[in-house]
Amino acid sequence: MNPATNRTYGFNLYIPNNSTAAILDAPLPEDLTSLQTSLQNDQSMIITTNVNATVTENMNPSTAERNDGNYWQEIRASYANTEKELKQQTDVGALHSGMWWGQKDLTNWTVVYLSRWNTSEGQTFRSQAERFVTTRRTCIGTWNITRNNASLIHVPGLDPGVVHGKNQTVIQNNYLSIIEMFYQFMGEFDWISRRRWNQRLPASSPADPEFIPTINTRPALVAAMLWSRLVSVDGPERWTNDQPAYPDLAYRIRSQDIRLVKSGRTLRGSSGPMAILMIHPILTIAAVLMKALLYGTPLSDDFGLISLLAAVRESGVAKLRGASLSGKLRQEVKVRFMDRGRREGDGWRRLELELGEKERGDLLIRGEQYG
Fold it and tell me: Which band of pLDDT confidence, cut at 50, 70 and 90, is reported for residue 338?
């Protein structure tokens, strides 16, 4: 899969642009299970509704901030426990990694600084630091749900404004222990040192190697770390005193605010239509052949058997008794064609039918018109 912006990934990740990532609040587990069990194998369900989302934006320090020692001192002062909140270490040789996260004594996770730097190239934590700001927003999400899968398929866009009030407390006043859980992975998530180790991106070629991904994956990394801890520690399945610790993570949406479209196959596979499709060409060929063989028969294409009754004598109609309702005769009835000649002024020859006669009928003349 080639990554791109303004598209969705997996269950609830949305990448609107190269500096933003959003992880949407998805349907609650019990609701999702209930919806999936109501579907047949050939059915699917599209659900669209307004939800909250954990949104991380890459908002790097300006050049003036990077070079301002007071700026970094103020940032350090906002962390009460620098041993746990300001993690920096050497990875391999001159390569270093750092994560500053968890202000207000590891309770405020709004702002994080990530940095990967190489001292042999004169780089420092400050020169390479990237700043990410996470907030809770609202957006419209559309999910496609099948019996075995559920995926986010469309997000029209994010609300530009931050959702104020209690919705932000899950980020700004919460013990999540993110650094202890994820900092060790920083060394593996190396987005600047691929060139140093000659580790080109798999999609590039040895003749034209690429080392820096086109898509900025750090906002999604930060959002995923934060969202995973929110769900595992305070999610809808973690209750305290018979209620969610943070109701803003386990809210309900009114049914009238949810658009649900259920679809499925209406024409199931059957051998009948296939047999008809196979037989139809054969019948068409047979009809063409019969028309060729009967070309000399003095009957036009619009000739109808019902028109023969107009030529039957009144005395012979009684022999058709029983066919008016059932459409079937009681016994076989022979038809005798009688040529009565042409009347003066008529352009056609008179034709009469006698029913039940055993004698041979008159020979009809090719090219003549009978009526």
Answer: confident
